Amino acid sequence: MARIDGTGSPIPRILRAIALVVVLVFFLFPILWIFLMSFQTNETILAIPPSLAFTPTLINYTSLISGHLQTAAGSLDLPFMHNLFNSVLLSSVSVLVSLVLGVPAAYAFARFRFRLGEDIAFTLLSFRFAPPLLVLLPLSLYFKDLGLANTYTGLIWVYQLICLPLILWIVRGYFEDASPDVEYAYRVDGHSWWRAFTRIAIPLAGPGIAAAGLLAFIFAWNNFVFALILASADKQPVTVGALAFVTASGIQYGQIAAAIVLSIMPTLALALYAQRWLVEGLSLGAVKG
Amino acid sequence: MNGLDIHGLRVAFGRNELLKGIDLTVAPGETLVLFGPSGCGKTVLLRAIAGLEPAARANVRIAGRDVSTLGPESRGLGMAFQNFALYPHMTARENIASPLQARNVTPADIETRVNEVAALLRITHVLGHSPKELSNGQKQRTALARALVGKPKVLLLDDPLRNVDAKLRYEMRLELPRLLRAAGAATIYVSQDYREAMGLADRVAILLDGHIAQLAPPEEIYDAPNSVKVARLFGDPPINLLPCRPVAGPRGVAVSAAGWQINLAVERGAAGRSCLLGIRPEAIALSQSEQPGAARAQLIATTPLHERLVVLLRAATGEEVVASVLGAVPPPGSAVWLMADTTHALLFDAESGARIPAVAQMVEHAA
């Protein structure tokens, strides 16, 4: 885009660059600030006026990783690393389960018209826009009865409310965009429908599946309220675990910043890694070159 | 029956019945061109034969084996799609090898047979390329190679030359009959181009309104279409249809239209009825001087079509006539005389659209 219409007058190009800088500063400055905060002690953070000149310290990271926080009021145990592990476990298993369930379902919704098909698809989507608080109270009661309260299984089950609709609807769109002729051709070649699904449909929808999986992972990772209500300390993810930094002796800004930096790392790394598939092959030129 | 045998094929989408009972038989080595306007169900018919159309009800036999209830993978046919339908994440070689892999052919045999068919279609040099690196012509050849490699008993080709450029289309029209003969399969070839049908077909099936409107060798369909619809469909530029009311003549009926006086050896029953006189644009010649039997007309416009010129004319009597001629024509606005070769002139009943049968044919039937 920029290269095509940026060839004329330089003014639009300059304006576009300025707009880009403004947007980037707006979105990235808080992250930069958090990053800087994570290398400062609470004292320097709260100093007025704030200063960019400080002696970096790794104390926040070491206390998070070792799990012991030294405060003015004494030593405090921090289950942060365990929270981080919970987050990774809950999010990745949830996404995996959703992919296993959602991708074949998305294929069915995309390729076949069946009775109540649209209604089922829409009901699944409605899980996304129903407020979670609506279901939390009955869920927590059911979970107690079923013995699912405070278990990974229970949380992963509830996380399907987040992941499954996303994956189903995004991947369905990709399946619908791919010409069924390519699968038909594979069937006519003598391959079973299952092979056509696994060897043709899934690879062709690969970028969509990757994008949907990544989005679902981020949404699951960012979830707060389900885990807050349905799990106790040892099963809680980072989003809930970060509450522990609001201690009796004050808010531990440095540790919060370090915790945020650590907790955005996995999603950031995943996004950078998956970017390749997100962009590549979106137009594979399957038909009518 | 050894080739392909279809009986009572019906496809209905809800209440809309697209194909209303198709019976077709194609012999091994025969090429049947399925011809019809867009949206008439040609592709759906092919899909139904291949087992890809869940809405289809049909009795399909391939080489004597009833495959009606089998899935597409068990019918053992080859198919080329209009949009090529190559597997974008595989190379041309893997694309072509796919039907063989499904049949557990050994890798060495796959190699030999892919190379054979690639040499036949002259795509050996691009076997390592992925579909997006292929030109449209190469894609189309790869798709054909994939359909041919398994040596199927039945070949279904869905307008394979639709998406390739004109030059390549001519090349392939010359090459295809040889390829299809070598394959020896019962072939159904979908086309919307009557020249393609003329060049490739042993027989042409005209699909109209869910039925086979006419099934005959291409020359017969061109010379003796059994209805106005078929006549209009099969020919480019389309046939001239001039309203007329014939009177009984010496050897049939006499027709007067566009300034011509024509005697036609057709059934006298047509006399006095409202009819359409059909004259192919190729059967009309232009002259700049008055000729016996010629009709006066004014030249309105010309446009080249392949080696011929298509000329739009207005007869002195007011009808518009299209002629397709070889060689130069006078500029638009000129007065010309039109001569019609009436040996192939056709007469249709205006109401029913049916062709008025020739007298000679009647005699044959009587004898």
Explained architecture:
The complex is a heterodimer of chains A (289) and B (367). Chain A is mostly helical. Chain A has 14 helices and 4 strands. In chain A, α2 (10-37) packs across α14 and α5 packs parallel to α8 (152-177). Mean pLDDT of chain A is 84; it is low at 281-289. Chain A has a two-stranded antiparallel ribbon with strand order 1-2. In chain A, strands 3-4 form a two-stranded antiparallel sheet. Chain A is globular. Helix content of chain B is 25%, strand content 34%. Chain B contains 9 helices and 21 strands. Chain B is globular and about 75 Å long. Mean pLDDT of chain B is 89; it is low at 361-367. The A-B interface holds A 179, 181-182, 184-193, 200, 203-204, 281, 284-289 and B 47, 50, 52, 71-79, 81, 83-89, 98-99, 102-103, 131-132, 134-136, 139, 143, 146, 150, 163.
Strands, helices and their partners?
The complex is a heterodimer of chains A (289) and B (367).
Chain A lengths: L1 H4 L4 H28 L4 H5 L12 H8 L1 E4 L2 E4 L2 H32 L5 H13 L2 H15 L5 H26 L2 H9 L4 H12 L1 H17 L2 H6 L7 H4 L4 E2 L2 E2 L1 H27 L10
Antiparallel strand pairs in A: 1-2, 3-4
Helix pairs in contact in A: 2-14, 4-14, 5-8, 5-11, 6-8, 8-11, 9-10, 11-14
Chain B lengths: L3 E10 L2 E11 L4 E5 L6 H9 L5 E7 L2 E2 L10 E4 L11 H10 L5 H14 L15 H13 L5 E5 L7 H18 L2 E6 L2 H7 L2 E6 L2 E6 L1 H6 L4 H6 L6 E5 L2 E2 L4 E5 L2 E5 L10 E5 L4 E4 L7 E11 L2 E8 L4 E6 L9 E6 L5 E4 L9 H8 L1
Parallel strand pairs in B: 3-8, 3-9, 6-7, 7-8
Antiparallel strand pairs in B: 1-2, 1-4, 4-5, 9-10, 11-15, 12-13, 13-14, 15-21, 16-20, 17-18, 17-20, 18-19
Helix pairs in contact in B: 2-3, 2-4
Task: Write a concise keyword list for the protein shown above.
heterodimer; A: 289 residues; mainly alpha; MetI-like fold; two-stranded antiparallel sheet; 14 helices; 4% strand; disordered C terminus; B: 367 residues; alpha+beta; Rossmann fold; OB fold (Dihydrolipoamide Acetyltransferase, E2P); 2 domains; 6-stranded mixed β-sheet; 5-stranded antiparallel β-sheet; 9 helices
